[in-house]
Amino acid sequence: AVEALDGYVARFLPARRAAAIAPMLVLAATACASWVAALILAATLLPFVAAMILAGGAAADESRRQFVALHRLSARFADRVRALPVVLAFRAEARETGAIGAAAQELADRTMRVLRVAFLSSAALEFFAALSVALVAVYCGFSLLGLLPFTAPETLTLGRAFFVLALAPEFYSPMRRLAAAYHDKQAAETAADTLIPIGDPVRVAPVVAAAPLNLRDVTIHYPGSDAPAVSNLSLRIEPGEMVALLGPSGSGKTSVLHLLLGLAPLTAGSVEAGGAPLASLAGQASWAGQHPLLIAGTIRENLLLAHPQADDVALQRAVVSAGLVPMLNRRPGGLDAVIDARGSGLSGGERRRIALARALLKPAPFLLLDEPTAHLDAAAEAALIATIAVAARGRTTLIATHSPALAAIATRIVRLGAAA
């Protein structure tokens, strides 16, 4: 959607400014030579503007429908590719192929409607442009030949007539360029509706590590959602305490972590640190999610994402704390071993340990862990739990988990029910 804004900024906005200024300059220059010719140009402009307004409204509606059809087709295709084994298992190839074909046909129909409106608006522009030049030419020719059916309102010389005829085509030239770029405007407006508005930057107040963290009657309700993800949650976390949020999927565990990171909306209630309102812990918290982000590069580069200024001593400390040493010893290159963005060749537990080491590398008093042991086998889960129990010492830790075994190492367990 962001790419659709390029044509609007690069082509439509300059063309709109030119279309607002250039015709007036041409009209003023024409009036200096022949006010009648200037009046003819202005008279053809009024119905042209009315036609463009009508065509523009129709184009906006059709462009919006085309964008919806494109989004529907791309989403359906991507979803069916991801679920291809399921489609094949249930022998639904023909049905899904037909559904994708219908979505593609709908997009083709919408595209043709957009083109039809574009051709109509282009035809209207060319008609009025040709009409204005023709009327000016007829007036100038008849005036020079003395064939006007009425008394000439002005004396028109050959030089003035030639000047007016040379300027007449330029009157609609900026509007032609604007019409050519008008589709960029429609595409940008349609795409902008799908973009998430960017709010004002949040000023993050420094948090004292020894301060308790208080959540009072917190409600998190995402825009467009029927029910709140979290409702009236009150929680106090003491400095250095490890708290586990335990509950089923949809109970709001991840939403609480996202709230502390400034990624979820605080609909009601308050979050305080040391008695002062807190907008976000993002600058003072380390975070490791259940789907660790990896980049193509070395393991060292992946760890340094959390703290680019970290030295080798800090890196080694984080590696040891996260239990990565055995894995690094097995891989040629150690920290400088190259991995891809998918973590090919790494087990689920190894990817989680890289994420944990990255979180520990950041010198932050708060540690937030989102399902750090999800989808691991029993042995890998037990090993990672033992690592977390040691690595989290000295940090205020909040863990969202399904695992009773992981929750058992916490100093306190807070159970969240199903989302209301």
TrEMBL record:
| Annotated ABC transporter domain residues | 213-420
- CC terms in the record's Gene Ontology section: plasma membrane
Q: Where in the cell is it found?
A: Cell membrane
Q: Which SUPFAM superfamilies match?
A: ABC transporter transmembrane region, P-loop containing nucleoside triphosphate hydrolases
Q: Which residues form a coiled coil?
A: none
InterPro entries per UniProt:
AAA+_ATPase, ABC1_TM_dom, ABC1_TM_sf, ABC_transporter-like_ATP-bd, ABC_transporter-like_CS, ABC_transptr_CydD, P-loop_NTPase, Type_1_exporter
Q: Which residues cross the membrane?
A: 33-55, 117-139
Q: Which domain of life is it from?
A: Bacteria
Domain annotation ABC transmembrane type-1: ranges:
1-187
Keywords of the record: ATP-binding, Membrane, Nucleotide-binding, Transmembrane, Transmembrane helix
One Pfam family name is ABC_membrane
- Membrane topology label: Multi-pass membrane protein
Q: Name one GO molecular function term.
A: ATP hydrolysis activity
* GO biological process assignments: cysteine transport
Q: Which PANTHER family match?
A: ATP-BINDING CASSETTE SUB-FAMILY B, GLUTATHIONE_L-CYSTEINE TRANSPORT SYSTEM ATP-BINDING_PERMEASE PROTEIN CYDD
Name under which the protein is recorded = ABC transporter ATP-binding protein
Q: Which organism is it from?
A: Sphingomonas sanguinis
